[in-house]
Amino acid sequence: MAKYILRRIAFLPLVILGVTCFLFFLTQRLPVEARASLYIQDPRQMDSMEEVIKKYNLDKPFFVQYGNWLKNILNGDFGYSESANMPVSKAIKDYFPATLQLAIAAIILVVFFGVIFGVLSAVYKDKFWDNFLRLVSLTGFSLPIFVLGLLLLMIFYGKLGWFPPGEYSFASDLIIHSPSFKSYSGLLLIDSVLNGQFKVFLDVLRHLVLPAFTLCFGSFALMVRVMRSSMLEELNKDYVRAARARGISEKRVLFKHAALNAILPVITLASIQFVRLLGGTVIVESVFDYPGIGRWGVACAQQLDIAGILGFSLMVAALFVLGNLAADILYSFVDPRIRLK
């Protein structure tokens, strides 16, 4: 297994290199002046555009330009984001923790309820609970995420005033940006506890409820359907019949035997869904005015912020590669029948 993991890790740089080459090739379709904006931090430099083009060899062949850009990337210089008015690396550092916090909350809901309701739907196949959960799943697939978000916002904030948009309230903002508040992880739920600010913790959690639920709803529907199908397949296998024939309790058969084997496809789906949540929170963050990296990615696209687009795309690509690697490794821990060599 160790050899398998090391072999997969060794291929990661090659995959990322291929992604960088493809993304940079796409930028070559743009005018050279637009590509020069990657390196311009001060608008006053626009007067010296020719100097910028010559300085960074933007009038040279593709591989020369790609080599220079890749060298900058390896040195941590992703260029300057005009939409965020800061370097791309700093924009990712500032915006990513909020999205990570949202994605973690959503994936916990997705996996927990997806597995439980998937097993429940399989056990009560073609009965009330199965039909009800299948209806919920169908609704999750059919209902656009922005419609669900607006409906929840209208009901739970507009009518009831329970869960406001944004990441935190003005009162929490004063505490978070005070000299006494220290940032340990960048995740406000964790940092507020470590700073002893439990009011901030509850406020951040309150603002997180609606976007997390909205984000998880479509993924939850898919998780239920996958878990249901996998569970039905396991329940029809001989080892389940043999366990029941030996007098093993139904609860033990379902959760210790069948569910443990049925959860394999869920692991792959959860890892992919988690990465998708990290890179695909655009609509949810826009609806709930949540200051995450997805909303920044939209701003980059709208303003043709090439440096920001490249930085955002590279981050999402790296996350997908790492997510797939994590899924393969988790396989061997969940199912001992799998041997990774």
Number of strands: 2
Detail the poorly predicted runs.
none
Can you tell me the overall shape?
Answer: globular
Mean pLDDT: 81
> What portion of residues is helical?
over 70%
Summarize, please.
The protein has 341 residues and is mostly helical. It has helices at residues 2-27, 32-36, 49-55, 62-74, 88-123, 128-142, 145-159, 170-176, 188-194, 198-235, 238-245, 250-262, 264-279, 282-287, 293-302, 306-334, and strands spanning 80-81, 86-87. The chain is globular and about 80 Å long.
List the helices and strands and how they pair.
Elements: H1 2-27, H2 32-36, H3 49-55, H4 62-74, E1 80-81, E2 86-87, H5 88-123, H6 128-142, H7 145-159, H8 170-176, H9 188-194, H10 198-235, H11 238-245, H12 250-262, H13 264-279, H14 282-287, H15 293-302, H16 306-334
Helix pairs in contact: 1-16, 5-6, 5-10, 5-13, 5-16, 6-10, 7-10, 8-10, 9-10, 10-12, 10-13, 13-16, 15-16
